[in-house]
Structures are given as C-alpha cells and as structure tokens.
Design goal:
Blueprint: H1 3-38, H2 44-50, E1 53-56, E2 65-70, E3 73-79, H3 82-88, E4 120-124, E5 135-137, E6 153-156, E7 161-163, E8 184-188, E9 191-194
Length: about 200
C-alpha cells in the first residue's frame, strides 16, 4: 500500500474520531447543563407552596372561621356578624394601632375592618411577637373566658398578646404590630383568592 493511500485512510479516521469526540463532548455538556439550568427554576412543590389558594366562602356561617394554608402559613377567613362589626368601632381606645398605620397589609384593606368586604376578614394567623398562632375567642364579656371587659378577638397563648376581630393588637401586648393581612381578591361572591390581588401581587 502506498503512502498516499495510507494518508487518506488516516485522514478519514482522524475526521471520524474528531467528530465522534466532539459529539460525545457536546452530549456530556448538554447532560450536565440541563440539570444545572433546571435548578435555577423553582420546583413544582415550591410553586404550589407559593401559589394562590382559592377559598370557598359560601358555606362559612356567620361567626364561623376557617383556616387554609398559604405559603406554609395558616390564613384565617372569618365571617363576621353585624355585632362583631359594630364592636370594631368601639375598640379604638384599647388598641396600639387602631388605624393599622404600621401593619403589613395591602392598601385596599383600609379602615377599622381591615377587609375588602366588611363581613369577610382574611388574616395570616401568626402572632407578630414570636410566631405563635393565636386562638379565636369571639365570645364577648362574661360569656368568654377572657374576662368581663373582653370585646371578642384573638388571644395568643404563648405570651398573652391580644387582638380584636380585625386582628389589631391591644395596648400593652408583647406583639409589636397588628396581624398581617395577605394579598387577596374576590373571584366571585363565593370564592376569595388568597395570595393574589387585582394587580397580581
């Protein structure tokens, strides 16, 4: 076999080996890059944990509260009675921040009721002191186990913080601020979407 034929054979082998090596290298880089790039995006579980939560409020009776989970936090949805709403205006002198000036809440929940619809109250059920979950104590005065002057509200058993039925903190409580009101909006008269408002927050 002549030297020219051998050179042609070797040149073909060389090209084949270069192409095969480049393809294998590209596949290896792709196999490494895909999981790496995918790790930049949140998992389905993480997306679900932060996703808005639809709450059917049509079956909540007057005076009843339900709890749903949003972003790993308990969120209360309370249907307030006319008596509960009337009491809110009387609580101002008892409260540290009656106008919720320092509270974490969307701008559209202004007012003593801290709600879009007066009768439906939505709040994150975590005390602003050390993160315990307060208990609903809706009975008023002597009917409650909170004392004769209790106007109805929430009681945190960890360190005795007290809040009214708009989750506004009472004076002298360890909790520094009113409870948080999360972003929310009404999809219709029967469903409130917790975790998203009209602006998509």
């Amino acid at each position: 076999m002549s030297a020219i034929v051998l050179d042609q054979v070797n040149e073909r082998k060389r090209r084949f080996l270069i192409l095969a090596t480049a393809a294998a290298g590209g596949a290896a880089v792709g196999a490494t890059a895909v999981p790496f790039v995918a790790s930049w995006f949140p998992s389905a579980k993480a997306l679900a944990a932060g996703a808005p939560v639809e709450v059917d409020i049509s079956k909540i009776e007057a005076g009843q509260q339900i709890t749903v989970e949003w972003r790993g936090k308990p969120v209360w949805v309370l249907r307030r009675t006319p008596e509960m709403l009337a009491q809110l205006d009387k609580n101002a002198a008892l409260l540290a921040d009656p106008d919720s000036k320092s509270a974490k809440q969307p701008a559209y929940v202004k007012g003593v009721g801290r709600s879009i619809k007066p009768e439906i109250f939505v709040a994150v059920g975590i005390c602003t002191h050390l993160g315990c979950s307060p208990t609903l104590k809706k009975e008023v005065g002597a009917a409650s186990d909170m004392g004769g002057d209790w106007p109805g509200g929430y009681y945190c058993p960890c360190h005795n913080s007290r809040f009214d039925l708009a989750a506004r903190v009472f004076k002298g409580a360890p909790a520094p601020t009113n409870l948080e009101v999360p972003p929310h909006r009404y999809m219709n008269d029967a469903v409130v979407l917790v975790g998203e408002d009209a602006k998509g927050a």
